[in-house]
Amino acid sequence: HFEESYEDAAKDYPKLSYFITAEDKVISFKEIKDADNDLDKAIEDSRITFFLLKDNSEPIGSVGIEVYGKIALLRSMATTEKNKGYGSQMMGHISDYVSINEINRLWLLTTTAEKFFGKFGFEIVDRKLIDKPIALTKEFVNICPDSAILMMKEY
Hints:
By secondary structure, this protein is an alpha+beta fold. The protein has helices spanning about 1-10, 30-35, 40, 85-100, 115-120, 130-135, 140-145; strands spanning about 20, 25-30, 50-55, 60-70, 70-80, 105-110, 125, 150-155.
């Protein structure tokens, strides 16, 4: 169950205790747990979850994941500063999320960070080999340029 899984992952990454829904509404995990409705209902309209990395109350990074069953697309990783470990911390959280949710394959598109993602086991892949649900995403079709590098990691 996502609620229990998120709590387990959040223990190791306490700064990642917030996420942004597709509607860009920032919701704390505690607010969701305290609400009458189920966590799944809070995100049922979207396959995308964005995690926000905070230092005290200041956002310092974000990363999203768009899930299609056992495959997913890493979305929009960004940090306020390079070489501070923020990206690595978010990748650790994403790795836990992928494991907890039994995702087998994680895809991403990048124009600038292939070396960074390579450190986490991602490999460059020919676009002809992409899983169809990922090929149909807005990220793949409209947002990222054709020159973006496609990378994939098997879990």
